[in-house]
Amino acid sequence: MTEKLFETALGISAPWFVAGTDFDAQARTLTIRVDFVAGSRFAIAEVSGEHPVHDTVCKRYRHLNFFQHECFLAVRVPRVRLPDGAVRQLEPPWAGKLSGFTLLFEALVLMLCQQMTFAAAARLVGETRYRVATICERYVELVLEHTDLSGVHELAIDETSRARGHDYITLAADALERRVLSVAEGRSVETIQALVAELDSRACRPEQIRSVSIDMSRAFIKGCAEHLPNARITFDKFHVIWHASTAVDKMRRIEQRSERSLKGLRWSLLKDRSRLSVRAAADLDALIAKMTTVRTARAWSYKEQLREILERKQINVVRAMLQHWCTCVMRSKVEPMKEVAALIRHHLDGIVAWAQTRQTNGFLEALNGLFQSAKRRARGFTRMSTIRTVIFLIAGKLDFSVINPHASQPTRN
User: Fold this and answer.
1) What is the dihedral of CA 254, 258, 263, 268, to 10 degrees?
2) Which residues are registered as beta bridge partners of 63?
3) pLDDT digits (tens, 9 = 90+) for 290-327
4) DSSP element (H, E) containing 385
5) DSSP characters for 207-249?
6) Nearest residue to 295 via CA among 333, 257, 258
7) 239-292: per-residue pLDDT in tens?
């Protein structure tokens, strides 16, 4: 009766059967012995027909816990003789992708590691952090091998820090599906080449990319021009506004030494006016009233004008208004904002492209934030392979059910 119950619970069917169970209360383990009917013949992948058993080997698989007790399957695994005389070991239908685990146990580990650190997941399932991380790395690489990227035409590329100092990794993401497609070390021209090479290996040809959104990094611009020949480069408005906001803050730092009314207005100048409190908005209005004498007020006005220009969708209008804006700024005495005007003039085509493509790296910045949060919880990562695995678990939207029917499918949002 007990054996039949476990067979039903485990989904074991002929010719496999549960031969018995061993329960060790002191060690808090349950071992389920699985065997096969004598005289059975087995099919082997890529070899037609069913083949006789040559001999057997005993293998032990970690399974989902039985209540609070660790559960293991002790299986007599057959090795079958093929028509050409070769002997090959059979993979039981419940065997995982990593030796010593069942598919159900690996599916649990994947689910946990998408929500917590490898160390935390390891404590929950009673395994080492190394084995938990290895399961995740193995699944990520297997799913990536099965992923077809032939339908990707728009990319977003951005960098994020992997450690303190100037140590970076760069991510390439599908701008429409909003999922990470490739990860590479550094933020140089060679990094873009490595990203493109990885995408090419998964059927995403460089020639099929029509649009790419990047920041104004010279290395990114050069790398995309060299390795994505048909891609139209877009600099999204958020990067442009960030430069303008930085210029406003720089002007405030310079001027507040002599203009005491600027004290305490840093965040009021940087935030969207619609999000300010009544008091903060009143203080900002009082500052704007001094526009003729306070350069910080003029810098804030230039930033807001730039924001309004980039909200328009007519390419020719945006181009003309940006050129006029740059001319006005260059004639002013707001020195930090002149750097922004020079930057816009140098990258005008890519900024104007935003009016048409509306392609942004904003979602990628959010994904970078999730990775940084995971990095802090884990107290940092040392290996690039671990970083790569964590990023794909968090932001790759990988469909693990392709290789493990018990794993959950990604959420498309």
Assistant:
1) -50
2) 71
3) 888 889 999 999 999 999 999 998 999 999 999 999 99
4) helix 384-395
5) GG--EEE--S-HHHHHHHHHH-TTPEEE--HHHHHHHHHHHHH
6) 333
7) 899 999 999 999 999 998 888 788 888 888 888 888 888 888 888 888 888 888
Quick: pLDDT tens for 72-95.
Answer: 999 999 999 999 989 999 999 999
| Dihedral pair phi/psi, residue 18, rounded to 5° | -85, 120
Cα gap 132→111, rounded to integer Å: 11
d(CA 39, CA 399) in angstroms, rounded, equals 38
145-185 pLDDT, tens per residue? Answer: 989 999 999 999 999 888 776 688 999 999 999 999 999 99
| DSSP-derived 3-state class of residue 3 | helix
Residue with tokens 């990536």: 144
Whole-number Å distance between alpha carbons of 409 and 371: 21
Contacting residues for 10 by C-beta, under 8 A, at least 6 apart: 18, 32, 63, 73, 94
Please calculate the CA angle 256-257-258 and round it to the nearest 5 degrees.
90
Q: Are 280 and 287 in contact (CB under 8 A)?
A: no
Query: Is the CB of residue 173 less than 8 Å from the CB of residue 156?
Result: yes
Flag whether pLDDT at 412 surpasses 60: no
Question: Residues 23-50, buried b or exposed e (16+ Cβ, 10 A)?
Answer: eeeeeeebbbbbbbeeeeebebeeeeee
Phi, psi at 39, each rounded to 5°: 90, 0
Q: 3-state SS of the chain: helix, strand, coil percent to 5?
A: 50, 20, 30
Cis peptide leading into residue 78 (ω within 30°): no
8 A C-beta contact, residue 203 and residue 148: yes
- Residue-level pLDDT at 1: 60
Residues forming a β-bridge with 55: 79
Taking the C-alpha atoms of residue 334 and residue 170, their distance in angstroms, rounded to an integer, is 34
- DSSP string for 19-78: EEEEEETTTTEEEEEEEE-TT-EEEETTEEEEEEEEEEEEEEEEEEEETTEEEEEEEEEE
Global pTM value:
0.83
How large is the greatest C-alpha to C-alpha distance in the chain, in angstroms? 97
